[in-house]
Amino acid sequence: MKPVVLNTGSRNETYKGLTVLHKPLIKICALPLDETIRAQYDWLIFTSKNAVTLFFEMYPYIKYKQVAAIGTKTEEALSNLNIKVDYVPSRFQQEYFLEDMDTRFQDKTICLPVSKKARPLMFETLKNIAIVDKIELYEPQPHLDNVMCVHQMIRSRNIDWILFLSPSSVHAYFQYFSLSEDIRVMAIGQVTSEALQKYNVPHVISEQETLYAMYETIKKLD
C-alpha cells in the first residue's frame, strides 16, 4: 500500500507512490496598512510566498530597484508577477541569506515585508548595515477547524506521516494535542525542527527545504 502522508502546509503537491492528504493548520490574516513606510527603496527582501502576494496587493505603489528572495516558492511567486529576482541565497534559510549576501545591502534602503511572527534574525542583522523598514504584513493564526480535523485523522490511525512546513503549523497543532507514537513526523528544515523539539516530538528533517524533497525523503525511508 502507498504510504499516507498528511501535509499541513499552505500549499499542496501530489507525488507518485504516495497518498497525499492536505489540511493546512495555519490561516493568514492580513494586518492594517503601514502608512509610515517610504515610497521608494533600493531593495525589497521577501522571505515567503505569502509576503509576496500580500505586499503587491497592499503596497502596489512602492518603487524599488532590486529584489531578493529566500526559497523557490518565494522566487516563483515573484516570477509569476514578472518580477526579476536579483539575489537568492545558496540555501533557503535566513542564515544562508546573510552569509552569502556580501556587501550588496551595505548602506542601502531596504523594505522587509514579513509575518508578525517572523524570526528577528534578518531584521536585526540588516539594520546594522542598512536602513531597514520592516513591514508586518500578516499574522499566521491556527486554522482551528483543520486542527481538529487533523487530530481526528490521527486518532483514526489512517496516517503514516505528518509533514510540518513551518514553526507556526507546529505550534498550531501541539498547543492543543499530542501525537501517537506510530505516526512518523517530518520537518521541512532546521527552524521547523527546533519548534518540534520544544514539544519533544521525535522527527526527521527533509534532505532539502522543499515539499517535493520531503516526499522524496519519505520514499527513501519507507
Automatic annotation (TrEMBL):
It is an enzyme of class 4 (lyase). GO terms for biological process: protoporphyrinogen IX biosynthetic process; uroporphyrinogen III biosynthetic process. Residues 16-215 form the Tetrapyrrole biosynthesis uroporphyrinogen III synthase domain. CDD domains: HemD (cd06578). It comes from the Bacteria. One of its GO terms (molecular function) is uroporphyrinogen-III synthase activity. Transmembrane segments: none annotated. Pfam families: HEM4. Pathway: Porphyrin-containing compound metabolism; protoporphyrin-IX biosynthesis; coproporphyrinogen-III from 5-aminolevulinate: step 3/4. Its EC number is 4.2.1.75. It catalyses: hydroxymethylbilane = uroporphyrinogen III + H2O. Gene3D superfamilies: 3.40.50.10090. Keywords: Lyase, Porphyrin biosynthesis. Belongs to the uroporphyrinogen-III synthase family. Catalyzes cyclization of the linear tetrapyrrole, hydroxymethylbilane, to the macrocyclic uroporphyrinogen III. This is Uroporphyrinogen-III synthase. It comes from Macrococcoides caseolyticum.
